[in-house]
Design a protein that fits this description.
The protein contains three helices and four strands; from the N terminus they run αβαββαβ. The chain has 145 residues and is of the alpha+beta class. It has a single domain, classed as Cation efflux protein, cytoplasmic domain (Alpha-Beta Plaits, 2-Layer Sandwich). Strands 1, 2, 3 and 4 form a four-stranded mixed sheet that branches. The protein starts with 30 loop residues before the first helix and ends in a 15-residue tail after the last strand.
């Protein structure tokens, strides 16, 4: 039976136990990291204008949460799977239900792939419909003269 090594003060220093799988301990992912993944996955979906609530809620969230958490709520159910709520503004002209379903799929796939933890549900709350911002090239030049 081997004795645990001692440090300079004579106190036992436990070493991580290696199992057959090579796992040495827990890996915990902060919910704000998952919220950032959700925001990025949502923004990649065609038809999404922005992630976050309406104007009044946006002001309140600005002072109470980090940028990565704005418009996204992440929790876990009783078996440890993620439960996600994401508030979005969509672009005018897109099928809202289709974009919502695309958001659910994108978020679920990205979170599972990046965290290796399943997503139980993704609730999408459509807070508004916006028109796309005009591009600089589309604006008419101002002629002074």
């Amino acid at each position: 039976m081997s004795e645990e090594p001692k440090n300079m003060d004579g106190v036992k220093v436990p070493f991580p136990k290696n199992s057959e799988s090579g796992v040495m301990g827990d890996i915990k992912i902060n919910h704000s990291v998952v919220a950032n993944i959700v925001r990025l996955a949502t923004q990649q979906v065609e038809g999404v204008h922005s992630v976050g609530g309406g104007f009044v809620e946006g002001i309140a969230e600005m002072f109470s949460k980090k940028d990565s958490e704005r418009g996204v709520r992440v929790s876990e159910n009783e078996v440890g799977e993620y439960v996600i709520e994401v508030k979005v503004n969509l672009l005018f002209g897109y099928e809202l239900a289709k974009v919502g379903a695309d958001i659910q799929k994108s978020v679920s796939e990205h979170v599972l792939r990046m965290t290796m933890k399943p997503v139980d549900r993704v609730d999408v709350i459509i807070d508004g419909v916006k028109t796309p911002a005009p591009k600089e090239a589309d604006k008419e030049p101002v002629v002074e003269g």
